[in-house]
C-alpha cells in the first residue's frame, strides 16, 4: 500500500516534530526513524526532508546546530523549541479530532456500506 | 574486484562532482549541500554495510535524494529570498560563508563581511584627508589634490585585500607615483593669464593636470590591485571589470547620498535649523571620499553574488549608440558644416570615443571567449566602423583649424586623446574583422585592450608632468 502524496505532505510536519520531541536528531536519523515507525509505509524522497526542516527552523519550531558525527563528518542537528512543542501539542489535538471522526465513520467492521460492498448483508 | 575499483572514480570524486552539480542551483547554498552530503554519506555507509560497492551505494543514495529539479524547487519555495541574491554582511565570500552556518572558528572582526570594517576605516581616513587638505590649503587645493588624497586609501585597501607578493616593490612604485603627482600638482606655479590667484583649477593646464592625476593614479591603483601580476592580461581585465562595477556603485551611492542630503537639509529647514553648511562642508566631501572605498568594498563583496551590471548596461546601450553614430554620420554629411563647428567639438568627440571604447571593453569583458562570433560582435563592428568614420571627419577638420589658430593646452590634450583612442579603435576594428572571419582568436581582442592601458597611463602622466611647463602653467 502506498500512502497518497497529499496525506504524506500533511503528515510530514507532525511526524517530524513528534520524532524531534523524542530528543534532538539529524536528517538521516529522522528518516530512519520514520521508516522504522511506519514499517516502510510512510516514505518520501530523502532530499525533501531538508527543505521541511528549514521551514520549521524559519518558523522557530526547531533550532539547529552543526556538530560532528562519530566519523568526523559535519552534521546538522535539530532540536524542538518550546514553540515547536506547543505546535506539536496543537497538531496532536487536531489529528486526534480527525482520527476520532474517521474512527466513527469507519467502524471496526467497516460499516453497512462496506458490508454491502463485500456482499455480507 | 580490485582492478574494477581502480578504474571507477573513487567515492570522493563522485561526491565532489555531485556537489558541483548541486551548487549550480541558485536555490541551494553551500551549507545546504553540506547537509545533503552528510546525509548522502550516511546512506552510502548503510548500503555499503549491507554489501553494495561504493559506487552502487552512491548511485542509489543520490537517487533516493529525489530528482534534483524537484529538490531545487522545494528549496526555492522555502528560501525564495535566495533567488534575489542578498548582500551577506556577516561572512561573505564562498569560503567565509561557511563560517556563519557551518562548523569552524568565528572570523576576527576585521576579516568579517569581506573586510567591511577595514573599508570603513579607510573611507573615514580618506574623508579626513580631504578635509585636512581643505583646511590647510583651501577648497581649490582640495579639488586639485583629490586623486592624490583619496586614491592612496584605495591602494591601501587593495594592498590589504590582495597581500601582493612583491609588496615592497609595488608599494614603493605606487608610493613614488603618488608623491610625484602630488609634488607636480602643488609645486607647479599654475597662474591664470590675467594674474588672478583663483587657484590652479581656473587654469587650463591645472584642470588638465587634475584630470590626468585622477586617471593616471586610478591606473596606478590598478597595478596595486593586480599585485605582482600587473603585466598579465587577465589581471588587467579584472581591474577593468572592477572599474566598471565600481563606477556603477559609485553613481548609485552618489544618487542616494545626494537625495538623502537634500532631504536632511529640507527636514531641518522645516524646523528652522539650517544644516546646509554642515552638509555641504562635511557630509558631502567626507561622504564622497568614503564612498570611493565603500563602492570598492561593494564590488568585492557582491562580485560572486550578482550578475555584473556594467556588461548588462553595455548590451543595452551598444545598439542605441550604434544607431546614434550612424545618424550622426548622415547628419554630418547632410549639413556639411563640421569644418565651421565650434572648438568644443573635439572634446565632444573625445567623449564619444571614450564611450565607444568603454562599450567595446565591457562587452569583451563579459563575453564567453569560447562562443563563436554572433550578431552582437557584428553590431560592435558596425559601431567601431561608424565611430572611426565620424572621428576621421572631425579630426581632419580640427587639424585644419588648429593649423590656423595654433595649439592651446586644451586643444593639444584633446587632440592627443583623440589620436590615442583612434589608434586603439582602428586596430580593434581590424581585430574584430579578423575575429568575425575566424582568423584571430577572441583572446587577441582582449589582449589588445589590456595591452593598451599603459598608453592611457602615459598620456595621463604627460598631462600632469609635461603639459603645465610646456604651456606656461596657463
TrEMBL record, chain A:
GO terms for molecular function: DNA binding. Pfam families: PadR (PF03551). Gene3D superfamilies: Winged helix-like DNA-binding domain superfamily/Winged helix DNA-binding domain. SUPFAM superfamilies: Winged helix' DNA-binding domain. It comes from the Bacteria. Keywords: DNA-binding. Residues 16-89 form the Transcription regulator PadR N-terminal domain. This is DNA-binding PadR family transcriptional regulator. It comes from Agromyces terreus. The lineage of its organism: Bacteria, Bacillati, Actinomycetota, Actinomycetes, Micrococcales.
UniProtKB/TrEMBL annotation, chain B:
It comes from the Bacteria. The keyword Metal-binding does not apply. Keywords: Membrane, Transmembrane, Transmembrane helix. The chain crosses the membrane at residues 116-136, 142-160, 167-188, 200-225, 246-270, 282-300, 312-334, 346-366, 378-400, 412-431, 451-471. The keyword Phosphoprotein does not apply. NCBIfam families: perm_prefix_1. This is DUF4153 domain-containing protein. It comes from Agromyces terreus.
Amino acid at each position: 500500500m502506498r500512502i497518497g502524496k497529499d496525506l504524506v505532505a500533511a503528515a510530514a510536519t507532525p511526524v517530524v516534530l513528534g520524532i524531534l520531541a523524542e530528543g534532538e536528531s539529524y536528517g538521516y536519523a529522522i528518516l530512519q526513524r520514520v521508516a522504522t515507525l511506519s514499517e516502510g509505509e510512510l516514505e518520501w524522497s530523502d532530499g525533501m526532508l531538508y527543505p521541511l526542516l528549514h521551514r520549521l527552523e524559519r518558523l522557530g519550531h526547531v533550532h539547529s546546530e552543526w556538530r560532528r558525527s562519530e566519523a568526523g563528518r559535519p552534521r546538522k542537528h535539530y532540536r524542538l523549541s518550546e514553540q515547536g512543542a506547543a505546535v506539536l501539542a496543537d497538531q496532536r489535538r487536531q489529528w486526534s479530532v480527525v482520527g476520532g471522526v474517521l474512527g466513527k465513520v469507519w467502524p471496526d467492521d467497516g460499516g453497512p456500506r462496506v458490508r454491502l460492498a463485500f456482499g455480507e448483508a | 574486484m580490485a582492478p574494477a575499483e581502480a578504474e571507477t572514480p573513487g567515492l570522493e570524486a563522485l561526491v565532489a562532482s555531485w556537489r558541483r552539480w548541486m551548487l549550480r542551483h541558485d536555490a541551494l547554498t553551500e551549507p545546504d549541500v553540506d547537509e545533503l552530503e552528510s546525509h548522502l554519506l550516511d546512506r552510502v555507509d548503510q548500503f555499503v554495510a549491507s554489501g553494495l560497492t561504493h559506487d552502487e551505494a552512491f548511485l542509489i543514495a543520490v537517487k533516493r535524494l529525489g530528482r534534483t529539479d524537484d529538490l531545487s524547487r522545494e528549496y526555492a519555495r522555502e528560501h525564495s529570498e535566495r533567488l534575489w541574491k542578498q548582500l551577506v554582511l556577516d561572512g561573505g565570500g564562498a569560503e567565509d560563508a561557511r563560517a556563519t552556518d557551518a562548523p569552524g572558528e568565528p572570523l576576527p572582526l576585521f576579516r568579517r563581511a569581506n573586510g567591511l570594517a577595514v573599508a570603513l576605516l579607510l573611507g573615514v581616513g580618506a574623508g579626513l584627508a580631504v578635509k585636512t587638505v581643505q583646511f590647510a590649503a583651501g577648497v581649490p587645493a582640495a579639488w586639485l589634490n583629490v586623486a592624490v588624497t583619496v586614491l592612496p586609501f584605495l591602494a591601501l585597501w587593495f594592498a590589504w585585500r590582495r597581500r601582493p607578493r612583491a609588496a615592497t616593490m609595488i608599494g614603493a612604485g605606487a608610493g613614488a607615483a603618488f608623491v610625484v603627482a602630488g609634488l607636480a600638482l602643488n609645486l607647479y606655479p599654475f597662474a591664470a593669464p590675467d594674474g588672478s590667484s583663483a587657484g590652479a583649477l581656473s587654469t587650463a593646464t591645472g584642470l588638465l593636470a587634475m584630470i590626468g592625476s585622477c586617471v593616471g593614479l586610478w591606473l596606478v591603483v590598478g597595478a596595486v590591485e593586480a599585485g605582482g601580476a600587473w603585466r598579465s592580461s587577465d589581471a588587467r581585465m579584472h581591474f577593468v571589470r572592477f572599474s566598471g562595477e565600481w563606477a556603477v556603485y559609485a553613481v548609485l551611492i552618489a544618487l542616494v547620498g545626494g537625495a538623502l542630503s537634500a532631504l536632511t537639509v529640507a527636514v531641518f529647514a522645516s524646523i528652522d535649523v539650517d544644516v546646509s553648511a554642515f552638509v555641504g562642508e562635511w557630509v558631502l566631501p567626507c561622504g564622497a571620499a568614503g564612498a570611493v572605498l565603500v563602492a570598492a568594498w561593494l564590488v568585492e563583496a557582491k562580485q560572486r553574488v550578482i550578475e555584473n551590471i556594467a556588461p548588462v548596461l553595455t548590451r543595452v546601450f551598444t545598439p542605441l549608440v550604434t544607431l546614434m553614430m550612424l545618424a550622426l554620420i548622415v547628419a554630418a554629411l547632410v549639413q556639411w558644416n563640421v569644418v565651421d563647428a565650434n572648438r568644443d567639438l573635439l572634446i565632444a568627440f573625445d567623449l564619444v570615443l571614450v564611450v565607444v571604447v568603454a562599450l567595446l571593453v565591457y562587452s569583451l569583458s563579459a563575453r564567453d571567449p569560447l562562443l563563436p562570433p554572433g550578431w552582437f560582435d557584428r553590431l560592435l563592428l558596425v559601431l567601431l566602423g561608424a565611430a572611426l568614420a565620424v572621428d576621421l571627419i572631425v579630426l581632419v577638420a580640427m587639424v585644419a583649424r588648429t593649423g590656423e589658430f595654433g595649439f592651446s593646452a586644451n586643444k593639444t590634450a584633446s587632440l592627443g586623446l583623440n589620436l590615442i583612442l583612434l589608434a586603439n579603435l582602428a586596430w580593434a576594428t581590424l581585430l574584430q574583422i579578423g575575429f568575425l572571419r575566424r582568423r584571430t582568436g577572441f583572446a587577441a581582442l582582449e589582449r589588445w585592450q589590456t595591452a593598451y592601458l599603459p598608453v592611457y597611463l602615459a598620456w595621463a602622466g604627460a598631462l600632469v608632468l609635461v603639459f603645465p611647463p610646456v604651456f606656461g602653467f596657463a
